[in-house]
């Protein structure tokens, strides 16, 4: 890639002059399309003169950093090499030889990703022609056209009719069959959960059809030899549609390799609707940029939801199979695993489930060939997108839906070389094979956000957040239970956690004496009456929190000035610097600045980034154009046993139309700020970036040597553009372990009381061979005599 630094333009946009007008206009894809002849419908025809050419076209990645630059890019009317409008951040464009000088003059940084687009297209076509002359070559060694893919799925059915059958979802606009293959085993009976996978919703994304066909191939061919595949087919029905947009796909083979949409004649000289903006969930909603109402735009959403036969028949097919569980819409390119939502930055109800599944899919993909994918919600991970298939599957049909973006990250983009077809398919299948297996093994999603507590303070009840939601099945309302006990023996006490919001509930661990432990597990039921336990072992292998004495070394609820540093040398933010006050809340779709501090009770103050006026806009005092730093007073933790630093933090990144680089960083220093070590970095997307108070705690010794000169700093950084950044900090506390008083040796169940229950518990353990009371390595009569002596000896 060549990095190009352009000179600053002195004349663009002045007086509103159009850049296109200065050149007398330039041909775009629609103009080129009018000169193309779509007379040959059979792919593989060697008449190259019928195919639209991109001689001299470069693909460039432009970094848009200001509203002025966005207007420049809009005025240039370049064709996107992805499906983003000119928004802030990085965007890829196809640039004709006529317009490339204008881009160089426009004063915008860019990187050349592909030097000659037509060279890649010609090389691809030559490979395909050569491949057709060979025999005995692996089917996945080269791209296949519509007819070849259909024939291959039919051959798979012929190979294993006991596992596979062909079906037709419906017809496209030009009356082509949208064909598919159903694969499942006879094991498991009727009404298995369904997994729906499709490719080529965007016709130029050739690798997606090959990847989807590969999944069908593996399911059919390896059922007898691969235990994991056998288990999946015994659990699920797979419905696989390699080519959802057959008209557009045929068009890429005969006429225009870069065609994206379907082939709707829009009646104004333009063609095509973006099928992945035409689905009827949140169709056409704000924010702008999620789709377009302009017919010549690559993200034209159509005149109405489900206006296109392709999306209509696909949605009807899913709706007619009510047991559908998973939906995977395969796209290219960018190496992303995208979950709900695309239409909004708000988190879905099943955010925790998606986070777990996304992480597992990404890890499984990496484990095949080392390809790095990024997982997260569509809106915050790549760009806003409304009317998408994955949002519809999740929002309208309660399916666990993804849009996955295959290889690569822009080096070839839609023209991925054929030698990457198979490795790409292998890693994508590995990722979603893992997701299917995880859902097979998890009837419900039960977790403790932030991790289960491993220690608790003596004699204090500990509130604990529990997430309880759907996985393979749906939870039965009111069935969630928390089971706890003090010590390692005796019965568990059952309690009902209280609902908080969405899938979050609040349970409480009971108070326990210092030196003991609290054991606990969570249980719930599915709507079909199946009991699910977390951890799976339940009472047999519960979670354990040790009860240790805790000394509070430092505590600050921000109500008084204890010597914090608000701002630091080198800070660059032009607004939104740290203050300590009672915050005035702001909202921009999601909460931006908090309305209240975190402190329970009379407290009102916290540290936060900038104070606006009551009723003011969300961007009135947010962090702008740089970073701002907040630093604690010096904290003396030298010589303490296991010192820990905890704090409540708030961070909101109300992102604009592009993925941002904005972050909220927390660092620690053991030498009064001379050097720093990162504790955590929040953002640019994911948990804790849409407002809300979150608690974090860190053991100092895991990051630095505890000293008498420890400080912690909080940095809110508006590194990107087009976003609203607010951060806040409250209730900072430094704690350390203290020595617990010696417990009575005969307190066998560790509940702080010596009574008959300890005697009974010891006797039961003794006859089970698990009562080494004197710690000599064996259970024998001496343990019994020693316990009796201790039992009758007052503590």
Instruction: Provide the gyration radius in Å.
Output: 31 Å
**Terminus-to-terminus distance:** 76 Å
Tell me what portion of residues adopts beta-strand conformation: 25-35%
The proportion of residues forming helix, as a percent range, comes to: 10-25%
Count every helix, treating DSSP H or I runs of 4 or more residues as helices. Answer: 16
Give the overall shape.
globular
Strand order of the largest sheet: 6-7-9-8-10-13-11-12
The helix/strand class is: alpha+beta
Sheet bearing the most strands, described? 8 strands, mixed
Oligomer category: single chain
Task: Give descriptors for this structure.
795 residues; alpha+beta; 8-stranded mixed sheet; 36 strands; globular
Task: Explain what this protein looks like in three dimensions.
The chain is an alpha+beta fold. The protein has 16 helices and 36 strands.
Please provide a brief summary of the model.
β6 and β7 form a beta hairpin.
List the helices and strands and how they pair.
Blueprint: E1 2-4, H1 19-23, H2 29-35, E2 58-64, H3 67-76, E3 79-80, E4 89-95, H4 100-105, E5 110-114, H5 117-132, H6 146-159, E6 164-171, E7 177-183, E8 194-198, H7 206-221, H8 227-235, E9 237-241, H9 246-254, H10 309-319, E10 324-332, E11 336-339, H11 351-369, E12 374-377, H12 378-381, H13 389-397, E13 400-406, H14 421-441, E14 444-447, E15 455-456, E16 462-470, E17 481-486, E18 493-495, E19 498-501, E20 504-509, E21 517-525, E22 531-534, E23 543-547, E24 549-556, E25 565-566, E26 578-581, E27 587-588, E28 590-591, E29 606-609, E30 627-631, E31 641-654, E32 663-669, E33 677-682, E34 690-699, E35 711-717, E36 724-738, H15 756-767, H16 781-791
Parallel strand pairs: 8-9, 8-10, 10-13, 11-12, 15-23
Antiparallel strand pairs: 1-5, 2-4, 2-5, 3-4, 6-7, 7-9, 11-13, 14-16, 16-20, 17-18, 17-21, 19-20, 21-22, 21-23, 24-36, 25-30, 26-29, 27-28, 29-36, 30-35, 31-34, 31-36, 32-33, 32-35
Helix pairs in contact: 6-7, 7-14, 8-14, 11-14, 15-16
